[in-house]
């Protein structure tokens, strides 16, 4: 899987800090990947931020706090649309597409 470096992510340091704070608060056990144009280099000012939550203990098990995190992201001061997905609910073809290029924002907890 071509994991990319955080430096390749098209996101300001301030917005990255806000995002990491929300992830740590609402989904601390989740492994979090960013994918899409903000990773591959095709982003523009109006690009959304594509995020997928993964359960590192069981990739087939959904993340229970998805709704809470989604609401917190909507209420945050992040200026872009955030497209949040749960890995366990995505079709295998979509998962393979994400695995082609992603940045890991949070490693997750397998315990």
Key descriptive features of the protein:
alpha/beta, 111 residues, 4 helices
Q: How does the SSE layout of this entry go?
A:
Blueprint (H helix, E strand, L loop, with lengths): L2 E2 L8 H14 L4 E5 L1 H4 L8 E6 L11 H10 L6 E5 L5 H8 L2 E5 L5
Parallel strand pairs: 1-5, 3-4
Antiparallel strand pairs: 2-3, 2-5
Helix pairs in contact: 1-3
Short description:
The protein has 111 residues and is α/β, with parallel strands linked by helices. The protein has helices at residues 13-26, 37-40, 66-75, 92-99, and strands at 3-4, 31-35, 49-54, 82-86, 102-106.
How far apart lie the N and C ends?
23 Å
Shape: globular
Strand content: 15-25%
Largest sheet: spatial strand order: 1-5-2-3-4
CATH class: Alpha Beta
Helix and strand run: EHEHEHEHE
CATH fold-type name: Beta Polymerase, domain 2
CATH homologous superfamily descriptor: Beta Polymerase, domain 2
Whole-number count of domains: 1
* Biggest sheet statistics: 5 strands, mixed
User: Which structural class do the helices and strands define?
Assistant: alpha/beta
Describe the structure.
It comes from Vandammella animalimorsus. This is Polymerase beta nucleotidyltransferase domain-containing protein. Pfam families: Polbeta. Residues 21-100 form the Polymerase beta nucleotidyltransferase domain. The protein is an alpha/beta fold. It has one domain (6-106): Beta Polymerase, domain 2. It has four helices and five strands; from the N terminus they run βαβαβαβαβ. Helix 3 links the parallel strand 3 (49-54) and strand 4. The chain is globular, with a radius of gyration of 13 Å. The model has no long low-confidence stretch (mean pLDDT 93).
